[in-house]
């Protein structure tokens, strides 16, 4: 940092990485619920399966591959 730089200038141009591990920045569960509802409707599946899908997803803690395999088996 040079004498003519403000402290915030050091961050300019640096990539930003934001992590939201607990749904505080983005309501991931709501987005997944909406996508699940659309998926079930698009494939003519019972809307009651949404509760099962949300449970299988476990707020994103279940690996995607595991959720996909569970969906395929169901």
Structural features:
elongated, 74 residues, mainly alpha, 3 helices
Textual characterization of the structure:
With 74 residues, this protein is an all-alpha fold. Helix content is 46%, strand content 0%. The radius of gyration is 20 Å and the shape is elongated. The N and C termini lie far apart (58 Å). The relative contact order is 0.10. The model has no long low-confidence stretch (mean pLDDT 89).
Q: What is the N-to-C order of secondary-structure elements (H for helix, E for strand)?
A: HHH
Query: What is the overall pLDDT average?
Result: 89
Given helix and strand content, the structural type is mainly alpha
Secondary structure: number of strands: 0
Largest sheet: none
Quick one: overall form? elongated
Strand content: under 5%
Query: Ranges with pLDDT <50 over ≥5 residues?
Result: none
- Whole-Å distance between the termini? 58 Å
Estimated helix fraction: 40-55%
């Amino acid at each position: 940092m040079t004498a003519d730089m403000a402290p915030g200038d050091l961050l300019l141009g640096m990539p930003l990485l934001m992590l939201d591990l607990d749904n505080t920045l983005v309501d991931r569960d709501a987005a997944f619920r909406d996508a699940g509802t659309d998926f079930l409707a698009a494939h003519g599946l019972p809307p009651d399966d949404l509760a099962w899908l949300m449970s299988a997803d476990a707020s994103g803690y279940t690996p995607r591959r595991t959720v996909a395999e569970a969906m395929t088996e169901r």
